[in-house]
Design goal:
By secondary structure, the protein is mainly alpha-helical. A two-stranded antiparallel ribbon has the order 1-2. The chain contains nine helices and two strands, in the order ααββααααααα. It has one domain. It is globular and about 40 Å long.
């Protein structure tokens, strides 16, 4: 059993995007769809593809810090502020599984690094293409759209 989609969106995704200064309804919808597709909203927080809600692998996590966050110290400081004080230094990849806001920030920055412009909030296929390119290259677009549609019926792209 994973996290309820509505609560994930309201209490993790939205506040994290607002904290980073990156909030938009499309960003919320995309991250919710990615979490649904990658881990069934947290039903599985570790598999061969990666860690946490978004199944981010260790090499992509490190590369994001080395390549993207290293060029923006202010943003890097914000993201680091979401991580645990001591655990981050001993095992930064564990943060992806146990720290929902940190994992959400990293997932968003992986998207932002490659897609600074998001599709419209009701463009599920456009969001599915981003998911496939960044998170699951072997995934099928219908896997994303089905995962999205299996979310709590009170959460729709239009209602975000």
């Amino acid at each position: 059993m994973g996290i309820a989609a509505r609560e994930l969106r309201l209490y993790v995704i939205r506040p994290t995007l607002m904290y980073l200064g990156r909030h938009s309804p499309s960003a919320e919808a995309l991250l919710l769809g990615i979490a649904a597709s990658q881990s069934d909203l947290g039903s599985a927080l570790h598999d061969r593809r990666g860690h946490g809600l978004y199944c981010i692998d260790e090499s992509r996590h490190a590369a994001l810090w080395d390549r993207y966050l290293a060029t923006d110290p202010e943003l890097a400081s914000l993201v680091r502020g979401l991580a645990s004080q001591h655990a981050f230094f001993s095992n930064p990849n564990l943060e992806l599984a146990v720290n929902l806001r940190y994992a959400t920030a990293i997932a968003w920055l992986l998207v932002e690094e490659h897609h600074p412009h998001l599709p419209a909030i009701d463009d599920l296929l456009g969001m599915a293409r981003i998911w496939r390119q960044i998170f699951h290259p072997q995934g099928r677009l219908r896997d994303f759209t089905r995962a999205w549609q299996s979310c709590d019926p009170s959460v729709t792209p239009i209602a975000c």
